[in-house]
Design brief:
This protein is an alpha/beta fold. The protein has 15 helices and 11 strands. Helix 3 packs parallel to helix 4.
Length: 320
Amino acid sequence: MIEQLKGWLGAKLNGISLNIDIVNGCVLACPSCAVGSIGRRPSHYMDLEKFIGIIGKAKEESLIRKVQLYIYSDPCMHPNLDIFVEVCRVCNIPVLLSTVLQHTQCDWRKVIEARPAEFRISFAGWDKMKYYQRGADPSLFNHNFAYVTSLPRYPETVWTLIFHLYKDNGHEYHRAKALAHLHNLKFVAIPSIFMINEKVVEQSYTDDDRELISHLQETPEQAIDRMKVDHDYCLLWKQISMDAKGDLYLCQLLYEDRFKLGVNFMDLPVKEILKRIKHHPYCHRCLAMGGHTYQYCYSEISKYDDPVGVAEAKRSKHRE
């Protein structure tokens, strides 16, 4: 009850987050991600008018803490990404971007000039890139990295290189860290996780999933057992997730169509959306298994220098 009250107050004071896949699709099919493990959704690009309507409606009905322009996609695939970022900036809403620096359609210079709150580069090293970021090309990454890091910087944007740690890529940690520091990027190393929450909750792994999990520093079950806290509150109850058509999903951790709420963001008040999310029967199943805590491996990456350590400290405090 205390955690639920804190969550309610936090939403009132700090606002809710919007997770928006402005592109239904990704250039990669990473085995730790639902795109690689379950399959691709039908391709679709959100149009600007739809996005402006979503932001306008959200602002009228609630306080918006931030907008994340990706869930299971690379937003740099959208040719008008800079305008989407600009819409949020004009509305004083921090907007977060994440890219794998592969084939994109945006104008990176214009995107950076639009001043996102975070420009995150997701990276798993060079040697194992073609496995952990399936479909990626190390030489293309190097080329695109050199270009984007040569662009002008603005104080509104945090530039971050996220290094995803597995059992067998730790030897590239120092090389990746040196690259980040050379180009004045914040460097954060995080233990990789198996991101497909429905498979974690339901224990419905395929052989390919188990192969990927064997490379993680700890299995989902080991992590959940280590990280469980004594409350039945989920941080994702303060977030709203949708695809490029504006169709709502239960949360950003769940990918399959069965987790669609059956309604578009534009057709339901924010208050009612949050109520439907919180009272969805699958939430109780996920909470009971601890699936929600597995996704709390680290705190906000752009906010903390040591997001893993901060998350551990928060969990320790909850256990006291």
